[in-house]
Each structure stands twice: as C-alpha cells, then as structure tokens.
Amino acid sequence: MNKLTLLSLLICTSVSTQVLGESVIVYDESSLQDAFQQASYNPEIDEIVFKKYSHISLSAPAIYRGEQSITLVGKGSTIDGSNAGSFVLDSNLTAATEDATLIFDTAGEVKIKNLKVINSATRGIVINVPADASGDDVSVNLDRVTISHSALYGLHVDDNADAFDDGRSGSALGIELKLTRCTFEYNGTGAIDFDGVRVDERSHGDIYAFISNTTIDNNGGDGIELDEAGDGNVEVYMNRVSLNDNGFYNEEDLDDGFDIDEADDGNIEAILTNLVVNNNKDEGLDFDEAGDGNIEAKFKRVSAFNNNDEAIKLDEEDAGDIEAKLKRVDVDASGDDGIQFTELGEGKIETVLKSVSATNNKKYGIKIEQWLVEDEEEHAEDAGSMTLKRVDITGNGKGDEIKTNNIERN
Ligand SMILES: [Ca+2]
Ligand SMILES: [Ca+2]
Ligand SMILES: [Ca+2]
Ligand SMILES: [Ca+2]
User: What's the pLDDT score for residue 98?
Assistant: First the structure.
C-alpha cells in the first residue's frame, strides 16, 4: 500500500468513527443517569461529555451495561458519591456491596478523562468484567482522574467471579490498566482491607499496568494491589509515582504501599522508576510470586523511607528465578529489613545493586536468600549471584553486612 492510500484510509477511519459515535451531554444527576442508561442500550453512544466543571451529587450508583467502548470526558467535573449506595458489614467486619459511585459492567474499553469522584459511600469507580466475556483484554484508561475519600476501594477492576474475590474463577480475558496524571487518596477509610487501586484478575489473562505521574497516598488498605491468579503474568511499569502513607486502617493487619500477588503459572515483571514510597504501615513494595514463573524487577531512582515492615520485599516460590536490578535505590528506617529477596523452590537469584543505600533499618539493611527448601542445612542448588557497586549499608540493627543464603558475590 502506498503512503497516500494509507493516509486516506486513516483519515476515512477517523472521520467515520466521529460520524458513527454519538455523544451525550451531562450536567446534573438526572442527565448523568440518563446518559448511562442510554449508552447501555444504544451501542452508538460511545462518549459521555460533562459540561465544564459540573458538580453532581448522585443518590444512587450510575451503571453502564453496554458492550461498546465508552469514554467519559469530565472537563474538570466532580461527582460526589456520598449518597450513592451502601455496604453491610458481616460479623468479621468484612464489607459486602455491589455498589460504587460509577459502575461499568462491561468488557468494552473504559476511558475517563479529567474527572473527580469524591466521597463515595462505597467504592469510587468499579469495572466488573463479565465472567463470560471474550475477545480483547479489558482496557481501563484514566487520565487526570482523581478518586478520593471512598469508604471502600477507590478504583476496582474486578475480573473475579466471586463476590468476596476468593477463588480462581474469572473471565478468560486479561486486564490492561493505564493511569496517567491521576490521584487516589484517602480511600479505604470505611472498612477493613480496601485499597486506593485494586485489580483482581482470575483464570486466563495477564494484568498489564502502566502508571505514570500519579499520586497514590493515604489510602486505608494498600495504596495499590494487583492480584492475579490462574494462568498469566503481572507486568507493571511505573514512572513518577508516589506511594506514601498507605495501609493504616486495620491496626491488626496493616497494609502496603504497593502489593502484587501473583499465583499459578506466570511471572511478575516490574519496571519502576522515580518512585517515592514512604511511611507505609506494612511493606513499601511487597511482591509475591507463587507457582511456575519468575520475578523480574528493575527499579531505578526509588526512595523508600520509614516503612513499618520491609521497604522492598520480593518473594518468589516454586519453580522460577528472581532477577533484580536496582540502581539509585535508597531505603532508610524500615521497621524490618530494608531490602529483602527470598527465593524458594527450584530456581536462582541473580541481582545487581548499583548506587544502593540501605541505612538505619531495624534488622538487616539487605537480605538476599536463595533456598530449595527454606532453612535447609546444606545448599541443594548452585549458588545465586550478586553484583554490588557503590552499595552503602550503615546503621542497621543487625549489622552492616549483607545477609545471604547460597549467594555468591561476583
Ligand atoms: Ca481473566
Ligand atoms: Ca499467574
Ligand atoms: Ca515461581
Ligand atoms: Ca531455589
């Protein structure tokens, strides 16, 4: 195809999309509820546009049930969800609800721009992936969105068929989450274990998350938790993200800045740059991989101060390796080890630490342990390796040597 043909094709496509798609304008509760209803039944509506700086209080959740991709253009508007739904607590003080301020029951792409969702009585924004969905992965794309002061989750992307997010059943799809210039703060302040951002992915499919220029602070549960089970990976890229002061709600079981739980087949791949991870009530970064699969971590320019447990913790179990490259990473004043890598089952650790400091931590500054079986008396595998350049370990409670098991220094 020559360039001109390609160009005219592109123009035609973009023109025809504009002609086909219909917009609905919203400015108050009834126009917003109408717009969600209309878009649910009319597949030609693909855009809901707010009048500039609208302030809308909802008295019930707004629910989208269409199959088409939908875009909300917020234009600086605010939705107050303080009366949109409710939740009940069971005897364990676990909260149950189907509600949220904005609910998307769809596998279509959800795009939201320049909108605030505040004071939700339950969850802020929820995307429920239908269990029988097929086709492309679910795509959730938020730009300049603030979700704050939700009683339960701020943002919840839910591919788990179980109401309490137990078990392994979910759709065959994966989840792509893109967050740019967003803020998630003061969520999870109404019940135990509700995060600023929570993704539950089950059955087949990966979690792919791209997060940049985003603030995830002061949430009662984890700042962000990516929870994947069944076949599939967690692949996450973060740049310029703050994860501070999270995890305070449940004093019996405090929470993290950033929690990844990956189970069954699949890897964790995390490329994190320019992160600030301070004052979280459990770990700062807490990544757990289980089943076949590796942890591949590249962290650059990350600082993690005053976290109550480890600042950075990688746990790999069953078959698979840990490959971790840290450059310009500083951890200080953790309530446990500063940096802790633990590898269990078949597999090795390979790590490179360059310009890394681990200071004033309660236990070890850095602990790197490779086992076949934890606490085995003799090494049953070839040793793993660590390469160290400009590593500063001072002021740590258990001394200033790197604590290792079956790791050789290159
Ligand atoms: Ca899935
Ligand atoms: Ca998996
Ligand atoms: Ca593994
Ligand atoms: Ca091993």
Answer: 94
Answer yes or no: pTM beyond 0.90.
yes
Residue 282 tokens read as 């459990």
Spatial separation of the C-alpha atoms in residues 134 and 174, rounded to whole Å: 10
Phi-psi region of 354 (alpha: psi -120 to 50; beta: other; left: phi over 0): beta
Q: How far is CA 244 from the centre of its chain?
A: 14
Ligand 4 mean position, distance from CA 151 (Å):
41
Kindly indicate the confidence band of residue 166, based on its pLDDT and cuts at 50, 70 and 90: confident
Ligand 3 midpoint to CA 294 (Å): 5
Overall number of domains in the chain = 1
Question: What spacing in Å lies between the alpha carbon of 40 and ligand 1's midpoint?
Answer: 23
User: Is position 158 within any domain?
Assistant: yes
Residue 121 has pLDDT above 60, yes or no: yes
Token pair in block for residue 45: 């509506």
Ligand nearest to the CA of 320: 3
Q: What domain range includes position 325?
A: 34-409
Assigned domain for 21 exists: no
What Å distances lie between residue 21 and 47, 143, 304, CA to CA?
7, 21, 46
**Which ligand is nearest the CA of 132, by number?**
1
Decide if 165 is inside a domain.
yes
pLDDT at 186 over 60: yes
- If you measure from the C-alpha of residue 379 to the centroid of ligand 4, how many angstroms do you get, rounded to a whole number? 9
Q: Ligand 1 center to residue 342 CA distance, Å?
A: 28
Residue 18 covered by a domain = no
171 Cα: distance to centroid of ligand 1 (angstroms): 4
Nearest ligand to the C-alpha atom of residue 291: 3
**CATH number for the domain including 402?**
2.160.20
